[in-house]
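Why do we bother with holo predictions? Because pocket geometry can differ from the apo form. Keep that in mind while you read this record for flavin-adenine dinucleotide.
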Amino acid sequence: MGTTEIAVIGGGIGGLTAALAMAQRGINVAVYEQARGLAEIGAGLHVSPNGVKVLHALGLEEDLAQVAGRPRSIVTRHFATGVPNFESAFDDVFDARYGAPFLSLHRADLLAILAKAVTNEARVQLTLGSRAVRVDEDRAGASVVFEDGSRASAAAVVAADGVHSRLRANMHGGITTKFTGHVAYRGMASTAELPVGLVEPKFNIWVGPGRHFVAYPVRRGELTNYVALVEEEGWTEESWTTKADNSVLAAAFEGWHETVRALVSHTLRGQCYKWALLGRDPLPFWSTERVTLLGDAAHPMVPYLAQGAVMAIEDAWVLAASLASTPDAATAFSTYERARLERTASIQTAAWEQGQLNHSVGRGDDGDHFQGGGFSDPSWIYGHDVVAAFP
Ligand SMILES: Cc1cc2nc3c(=O)[nH]c(=O)nc-3n(C[C@H](O)[C@H](O)[C@H](O)COP(=O)(O)OP(=O)(O)OC[C@H]3O[C@@H](n4cnc5c(N)ncnc54)[C@H](O)[C@@H]3O)c2cc1C
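The structure, written out:
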């Protein structure tokens, strides 16, 4: 597509990965982010091999190796005794099968790596403090309209403006949400303040009645991240910035294994957030002639398969490849959408089902027989290789 300029709305994981992938294919990109700085909350992020393959192909392998953890396995444990009832290794065989490792990251570390790479790209122009409200499009191009009334023109626009996407609402109207009944509390503890070796370098999950608790080390093991999923009515706000009180969490996890309780009590000050988990059905389409959606804007999903950011990363690769190999944006957007819509819809649905499963077993108080939700074979997710499919 040569020097055609693409405007990307949103400088999150999806928007920055898309900007980097497009620039590397010779496309000039302008990224507009509403926040005054590029920042992420103190929370962890799992990136499975299907996403890591893309990040490696974008040249980020060395930077990732500096900060990412490589969990040895995924393990589910009894909520009170901590005794494992399921474990599956992420070993060399796993890496070879999928062509990349499974990584645990601090969200801010991934965003910083992407921001550095994007900043080093002469083809990317980043503007902060610009909130897009709509895009006007005609046969000649697109014009992004910002909240302050200013405009920016581009040949086409990628809306990577997240779960509450304004540009998706312009395309589809408000979309219906369904509350899972679960609230995710996310926190970080300093590993040095915890008993030595408390949390194994694994994707650890404790499963109990009406709750489960996930913990893993991030940032070279310096921090330990947790996500506590709690059945809770009356709170339905999705927000990256709503702070939670970890003493509420301590009460919710009374009687749970000492590792869980120690993590909650050592939560870094101001580093506990709450997010109500809402599901949304797949959209029927993502693109007009000049605008397409990417990441959570296109396929918001509940996080039970840890695939939201990974799907945004896959989207970014496919979109860049489609734009680079097609003379006009409308054709590229339709190639991209055809390659992505069905896959992401299946994952949206599977993630919702996993969430139902996670809390459907052992709701009673017979903790000794608690088995947890169980996991199905992830090879259809992890084995998908967009880098090979769109060289
Ligand atoms: C509890 C929880 C745990 C999760 N764990 C994982 C995991 O382990 N692995 C995984 O892959 N995914 C996980 N996810 C999902 C993942 O966080 C999201 O899928 C991912 O952040 C989506 O990236 P995005 O770039 O599409 O959107 P966002 O990260 O939301 O970025 C959107 C950006 O657009 C900007 N923006 C918004 N509106 C405008 C506007 N009008 N104009 C300009 N800029 C705008 C925002 O400020 C933001 O910077 C989890 C989600 C939750 C809630």
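Confidence is low (pLDDT under 50) at residues 362-370.
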